[in-house]
Amino acid sequence: MVETTSTAPAPLPLNKRGRGGGRATTRSAGWTAALPLLVFIGLAFGIPAVALLGGAFTANGTLSTANLTESLQGAYLTAMLSSVKLSALVAVVGAVLGTFLAQAVVTSRFRALREAVLTASGVLANFGGVPLAFAWIATLGNSGVLTTRLGLGDLGWNLYSFWGLVLVYLYFSIPLMVLVIVPALDGLRPQWREAAQNNGATTWQFWRYVGIPVLTPTLLGGVVLLFGGAFAAYATAAAMVGTVVPLVTLQIADALAGNVLIGHENVALALSLDMVVVAGVVMAVYLPLQRRSARWLR
Amino acid sequence: MAALTPAALPDVEPPARSGGRGRRGGIWRGVVLVVAALYFVTPLLASFVFTVNDPMTGFTLDAYGEIFTAEGFAQSLLLSLGLAVATIVLVLVLTLPAMLAVRLSAPRLRPVLEVLCTLPLVVPPITFVAGISTVLRWGPDYLAATPFYQTIISIQNPAFPVVLVIAYAVLALPFVYRALDAGLGAMDVRTLVEAARNCGASWPVVLLRVIVPNLKSGLASASFLTLALVLGEYTIARLLGFQPFSVWIVTISGANAPLSVAVSIFSLLLTWLLLLVLSTAGTRRSRS
């Protein structure tokens, strides 16, 4: 009381106190309303995460890094490298092809074509999992429609291989890239191209010095997104190749199902931790890029 | 082009140049579009041909007829739909109040919520399921004497595995968060809530009769995304040993190849229908 009278005229502190009190109650109400979600995430996401971390660093009941060491050796290392290679290849090829497709659609005069391709992309980008694998098996598998009609089997074609997986993964990666890159291509203003042309630039020079640099953050962001999608994919690979192509997701599933030596059960958790680290690093690259690309494309 | 061309370019040059580029552009554009169309349409057509073409008798739609009589079809589809409904209810009941609170009274929570709701995107489902199965194994190992044991057993009831609902709600968080965030961003939440409160509405009334009707399209797209996610999810259900629709497709695939492809096409059409509904809902929202 003494303080208020000494520092400010009478009505202000009253007013202030009144408003402050109101805000305090709504603030606590805000926290209460958000609490169930926070608790849910803490329980449903936090506990498995802690269990994963704890298990990855526990071998034979004691704290150790043996699981992690094992997860980066032998067949597990091969699987991890094969997963990274597959995802990187799918990401780069998917990004390039997706960009070409998007450019073809964006520069087209037909509005309907653009709408159709974008809608189809939204649908196909979500087309993953088992049905995707079955559709391709029916098409290019050993007794697939195209394989038998065109006699591809005699030519040495085999869908259940690394390149088969690349072909299938591109099926949902390219549409995803189209969705990512179309807003960026729309943001490339025709005036920039005209300005370059007026200054005597060739088409190649325009893309080399204007187009590609402006698109680079979005392109890299797209590559990262495609990498993440291909890296985490399990259902398609499991339904398609079984264990013919070593992939880290397949190894984890195998280890979780109990196909490991006694005392090595936690290798699955160590492998999972490796995966989270790779995915986390990739995402950490993506977020700043996304912010940077937002600067030019307004 | 139109914005700058008349002012900046001389009369003769642009038609000739743009005409030339147009023709060349037309060719490569055509090639790209045709190749893309071939790549994306072929598997769909081929799998349809695969299901209707019997080597002995020729054209037949038997595979599609068999879907509905195959063992476990109705059971697994109903389980999937039940899981989807439960997940949608759970995730909306948790997320909507939190997001309203963040907009109205706890803006400092917003970045926290955003990060938490994006995390499931970083974590591949298979690593998530590795964590979950570790936790579930704690049941018999450590918790047998405690009440938690009963909880762990009951959430794994194969007739309706609650653990899947929990896992799917986590996976759906990023999509639901974005859909609702876009929806809430499009309306003036604070004014609406304050007006309703000043007129004497209680919080449940505000939520159900003011917020929800205004947020219809956001809620619809969040629900559809969750539904599509739950119907297509395979990894978690398979590794925890449950049999919803997506796992059932694989289980029957060994016995009857045309049938399993037919079921795949069926589930695809189902998902696509949902996504199409979603995307039309989305365009209607952006136009209004």
From TrEMBL, chain A:
What keywords would UniProt list here? Cell membrane, Membrane, Transmembrane, Transmembrane helix, Transport
This protein's superkingdom? Bacteria
CDD domains in the record, alphabetically?
A: TM_PBP2
Transmembrane segments in this chain: where? 33-57, 86-106, 118-140, 160-185, 206-234, 267-289
Give a Pfam family name.
BPD_transp_1
Q: Which residues form the ABC transmembrane type-1 domain?
A: 80-286
UniProt GO cellular component terms? plasma membrane
Q: What is its main location?
A: membrane
The UniProt similarity line reads: Belongs to the binding-protein-dependent transport system permease family. CysTW subfamily.
Query: Is Transport given among the entry's keywords?
Result: yes
The UniProt entry, under SUPFAM superfamilies, shows: MetI-like
Specify where the region named Disordered lies, as residue ranges.
1-25
Record flagged with keyword Repeat: no
- Record the organism: Sphaerisporangium album
Q: Which GO terms describe its biological process?
A: transmembrane transport
Gene3D superfamilies linked to this entry = MetI-like
Q: How does it sit in the membrane?
A: Multi-pass membrane protein
Q: What is this protein called?
A: ABC transporter permease subunit
From TrEMBL, chain B:
**Topology within the bilayer:** Multi-pass membrane protein
State which residue ranges cross the membrane: 27-52, 72-100, 112-139, 159-180, 218-237, 257-278
Q: Which GO terms describe its biological process?
A: transmembrane transport
Please tell me whether the keyword Cell membrane is annotated for this protein.
yes
Any idea where this protein resides? Cell inner membrane; Cell membrane
Gene3D superfamilies found in the cross-reference section? MetI-like
Which keywords fit this entry according to its UniProt record? Cell inner membrane, Cell membrane, Membrane, Transmembrane, Transmembrane helix, Transport
Family that this chain belongs to: Belongs to the binding-protein-dependent transport system permease family.
Recorded protein name is ABC transporter permease subunit
Q: Which organism is it from?
A: Sphaerisporangium album
